[in-house]
Structure to design on (267 residues):
């Protein structure tokens, strides 16, 4: 079963797991019904929370461990589990695809489980945890074009029924979060960047998105570290060709955090 679509989702705060007032939670819960009713054979997640010097794939032969890569949250969050089966076979295919496309070094990390950039959205998207899941890292020392090319290399996996999705955040500056501004956006710089991104994607200006540091307003303020943005470039590249972008969710939280999420469909 070939798939046509790739996705970029803003996973936001880990408290999404316990706070049903966060609007994006309902979006993820409606995934199979409203967003993507096809059941993928396997899932490849490019997570903002997996950052390495070279493209790296987690290799797990049994159930994935749940990584609690966050601190100071309510204790019940550290008891949540998402034991989706590891995608060792998929990991091999990912490595082959990247090397075949000219990436000279692709590493493996055996036994690494799923970080919260993967399991937090997945626990709502596919709560049964019965689909193979593999993670691929970002490389924050590289740029958007590098990650777009990673995506292009991965595009053939869609023909094998692999759902490719990037998990990050459309805007991400943790130092600016306003915990009194629930459900709203107050910072003009975050709004400006978010609007620019939406227009660029819906108009198919992917070259501008690849060079967002030069093209976007308030790029450095919005993404002091590009880890939460680069999964978007992989998703665009993996869609293939000049894909059509669709905004599938939009909401705000904590004053500056956009949950904008996008679908890319091959033309």
């Amino acid at each position: 079963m070939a798939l046509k679509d790739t996705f970029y989702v803003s996973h936001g705060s880990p408290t999404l797991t316990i706070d049903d007032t966060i609007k994006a939670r309902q979006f993820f819960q409606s995934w199979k019904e409203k967003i993507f009713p096809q059941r993928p054979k396997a899932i490849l997640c490019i997570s903002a929370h997996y950052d390495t010097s070279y493209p790296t794939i987690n290799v797990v032969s049994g159930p994935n461990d749940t990584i609690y890569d966050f601190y100071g949250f309510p204790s019940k969050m550290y008891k949540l589990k998402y034991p989706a089966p590891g995608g060792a076979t998929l990991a091999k295919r990912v490595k082959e695809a990247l090397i075949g496309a000219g990436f000279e070094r692709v590493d493996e990390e055996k036994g690494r489980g799923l970080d919260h950039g993967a399991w937090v959205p997945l626990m709502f998207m596919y709560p049964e945890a019965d689909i193979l899941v593999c993670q691929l890292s970002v490389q924050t020392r590289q740029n958007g074009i590098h990650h777009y090319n990673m995506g292009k290399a991965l595009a053939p996996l869609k023909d094998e029924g692999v759902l490719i999705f990037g998990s990050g955040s459309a805007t991400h500056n943790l130092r600016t979060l306003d915990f009194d501004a629930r459900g709203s956006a107050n910072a003009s710089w975050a709004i400006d960047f978010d609007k620019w991104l939406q227009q660029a994607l819906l108009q198919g200006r992917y070259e501008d998105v690849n060079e967002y540091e030069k093209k976007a307003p308030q790029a450095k303020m919005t993404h002091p570290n590009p880890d939460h943005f680069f999964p978007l470039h992989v998703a665009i590249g993996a869609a293939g060709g000049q894909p059509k972008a669709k905004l599938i969710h939009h909401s705000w939280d904590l004053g500056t955090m956009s949950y904008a999420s996008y679908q890319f469909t091959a033309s």
